[in-house]
Amino acid sequence: MSVPDRTTVAIVGGGPAGLLLSHLLHSRGVDSVVLESRPRERVESRQRAGILEHGTVDALREVGAAARMDEKGMPHDGFAFHVHGERIHVDMAALTGRAVMIWAQTEVVKDLIVLRLEQGEPLLFDTEVLAVEKVDGPLSRDGEALVRYRGDDGAEHELRADVVVGADGFHGVARRAVPADAVRTFERVYPYSWLGILADAPPSSDELVYARHERGFALLSMRSPTVTRAYLQVPNGTDPASWSEEAIWDELAARTGLDDGSFTLNRGPITDVGVTPMRSFVAEPMRHGRLFLAGDAAHIVPPTGAKGLNLAVADVRVLAEAIAAWRTDGSQELLDAYSDTALARVWRGEHFSWTMTTMLHRDPDADPFDDRLALSHLQLVASSESYRTAIAENYRGVPLAGEHQSVPEHGQVLS
Ligand code: PHB
């Protein structure tokens, strides 16, 4: 593959947001170059969440990267909360007519990479972006923006582009190209992390279990009919090596158990352990001149509720439409609206993720008042169908701005 020195859209970052954007643009006849700093194996092995909203599933189908997901993904109609030994079921399908799909982000990324390489379109790994320059000022069709990068040959190169998209994550370089006085940031750091495991054990229940217990939060998820994914709330700075396999399973059992004895945890060999800190973060606006930010480069959510990937996908769906409209008829209306359109959904995701997080975790610094509030919140979930409906609507994902939310036939569930 020869690497162009000029493109319409330079996409900084080859994670799910950047890769999917390249495909959405390609299918709209817009060329792009994707630059990713890490080697392909690293991008493909990163363990992240695994819940896809309906809109995310649609986008993968639209670009032709859904065959494995449709074969092996697991549609889920609901989930459960286990609160101090009591079960609350949220029947998402009955309450909202929609399901979600369990399919790991890692697998999504693999399929997007294969498709891009099959198309012979530029996707550069081991390519470190050194600087994003000349993004101030109006849009131009002269490729005025400049991306400087070090290629996998070790040499420095330049890529000129009409538009640069920063999809290079929270620690990426793209956001730093925005002058400090042109961006406002909002942040919350949580006093706990997640210890996450993958295990060769069949899932303990058909649906996901979110548990709140005196000893802290736990989540039981899955990757396949034979692989469990699970998480435990742990103190920040926890060394995963300080937890033995037995201690992890005992703690998961203690936190997810039900008082009536009806729940049994399946155990098995643990194949992967990691610790993830939790953060909420938003940078506004998501555009500066010819630079557009998408996904984690602009916003982070704590993983409770699995909104991160879905928010990133929603960003690039809006952005691809807007760039295509500009290229087709010169109209900048959608691009001018991009930041506001994306941020409305981002803040919904921020609020939902914060709500799920604070309702289900035990803050080690909290006083008893906070604990009582969280329990009352969960009591409301248990007792009110309309409140459960609101949670289910957020969980399965709200429609994109301007998108019609089709109402399924009675009894029909869309996944
Ligand atoms: C996961 O399967 O990794 C997962 C599921 C649900 C969440 C977070 C992570 O809320």
From TrEMBL:
Name assigned to this protein: 4-hydroxybenzoate 3-monooxygenase
InterPro entries: FAD-bd (IPR002938), FAD/NAD-bd_sf (IPR036188), PheA/TfdB_FAD_monoxygenase (IPR050631)
Residue ranges occupied by any FAD-binding domain in the UniProt entry: 6-351
Signal peptide from the UniProt entry: none
Stored Pfam families: FAD_binding_3 (PF01494)
The entry's keywords: NAD, Oxidoreductase
Domain of life: Bacteria
